[in-house]
Amino acid sequence: MTHQIPFMKMHGLGNDFVIVDSRNHGPKISAKIAQGLGDRHRGVGFDQLAVIHDSPDADVALTFFNADGSTAGACGNATRCIAQYEMDRQQVTSLSLITERGNLTALRCGDMVSVNMGHPLLNWDEIPLARAMDTLRLPLDGTPTATGMGNPHCTFFVENADAVDLAGRGSALEKNPLFPERINVQFAHVIGTDHLRMRVWERGVGVTLASGSSSCATAVAAARLGLTGRKVEIQLDGGAIYIDWQHDGVWMTGATMHVFDGTLTAQFLESLR
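Below the sequence we write its predicted structure tokens.
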């Protein structure tokens, strides 16, 4: 095990991340290290951990862990944070990033960052769901809409998202047999024309202040249901994010923050053996 591991702490609208740069034969991160590091009392704490890798096909490649040590196929806000860092480092205004989701494009937009999260997955077997069904209205109380954005999502549109028992309902739905890879759960309501309020429960994490892929899924679901157009502002617990479902994919734009740099000590890493 590596004697010490440098890391960065970042967040996008309060959705917080630990970032480890493993390029040039850098440190290797296991699920056990990720789980220990994700402990907010005995580690550093994060919603997701992102690892940066070398790639022959893009500027950087990324893999993601949830706080419980499980893997995530996509993490939109972490992707934006890393894109901001790497664009600053390279002094460029655009970047290509490879994730399990595919080859993504990031652009600098003033003091914010946009990432194209790719086309939404709308078929039951792509999301995936346990069996064939209409993904627009799932056979669950509240008839949520299912969407794949690299991670599986189901979105409930309710009268008041702030009145929902997010922890209770989210934890129960996450492991519903309908979702073979577990599910990210969103509760949203319409504020006005192309303006939504949304709260999120993330699989393997719990309640989070924001979620990029969940925001994309919610915007896609709202557009499919005719509740909004394809370009929306979503008010999250951590702030506002902007989603634009265009012909080339779902673009997500928002603020990022590089909070601090640190080093995991040999003592901490030894405790995870």
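The chain has a mean pLDDT of 96.
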